[in-house]
Amino acid sequence: MSNKLLKGKKGIIFGALDEKSIAWKTAERIHEEGAEMVLTNAPVSIRMGQIENLALKTNSLLVPADATSLNDLDNLIEKSVSHFGSKIDFVLHSIGMSINLRKGRSYTDLNHEWMKKGWDVSAVSFHKLIQSLYKKDAMNSWGSIVALTYIASQRTFPNYNDMADNKAYLESVARSFGYFMGKEKNVRVNTISQSPTLTTAGMGVKGINGFFKYAEKTSPLGNATAEECADYTIMMFSDYTRKVTMQNLFHDGGFSSVGVTQEIIDAIE
Ligand code: NAI
Questions:
Q1: Which residues line ligand 1 (CB under 6 A)?
Q2: Taking the CB of the first residue and of the last residue of the chain, which one, N or C, has fewer CB atoms within 10 A?
Q3: Is 108 helix (H, G, I), strand (E, B) or coil?
Q4: Element holding 76 (H helix, E strand)
Q5: For residue 25, what pLDDT band results from cuts at 50, 70 and 90?
Q6: Quick check: is 36 in a domain?
Q7: CATH code, domain with 164
Q8: pTM for the whole structure
């Protein structure tokens, strides 16, 4: 499926680690839809992952950047603008990391230094990124910025741990900075709240397999896949969504609106 919806547009994609990554699928779709990209990831993830293959496949420039470093972000944006010879039309923030989750520390026994690190990587990095784009006036008018989030920001999912708080902060940044980016730059800022997805980050959540199945059964349309998330993001980068901003957009097969399903009641009775 390609409609060249993004023909002539230029953007930056964060977070493609390997073929399972949502950002990987999104970069492939962006390429099909006719846009040019700069791909970026943390230097350690570039060494461990396969992003160089993606850069070759999509004919993209690869610029390493730790999303917590303002210097790295400034450098990435400067290099991107000079590579494109123009300002930027779209940016995807597809970054998440919790050391507490990774090391199996429960929410009632958090290591707060790890918590701060995870907050910086997963949430503050979004503010740093937009601030750098804002100060450099690097976005084209009617550009679009998207970050990926999860419904544990708004409802309780015990195993999601401190990432739930990070996602709540991330969604708030989209609203707060979305105001200034809209008023002063004509740029929209949104978060997409995606179904559980079996990626490297997703599989780091304790009990993900059971939970994945629960969400699949609860969602009237079933879980949204990484490929479907890529399609939704393409739409958010296209000119068809120019007045959608400061929203948290659920892309979850209807999960977020379901109270209970008949199957669950039948199983309990
Ligand atoms: P992934 O593991 O493929 O992607 C996470 C990315 O974050 C990796 O590429 C990693 O290198 C990058 N990253 C970590 N620290 C970084 C740093 N300091 N600087 C720059 N990049 C850094 O997993 P996935 O699932 O594709 O995650 C993408 C986004 O989607 C994340 O925000 C995640 O929270 C979100 N999401 C994932 C869901 C899932 O079930 N997999 C559900 C809803 C949202």
A1: 14-15, 17, 21-23, 41-42, 45, 66-68, 94-97, 121, 148-150, 194, 196-197, 199-202
A2: C
A3: helix
A4: helix 70-84
A5: very high
A6: yes
A7: 3.40.50.720
A8: 0.98
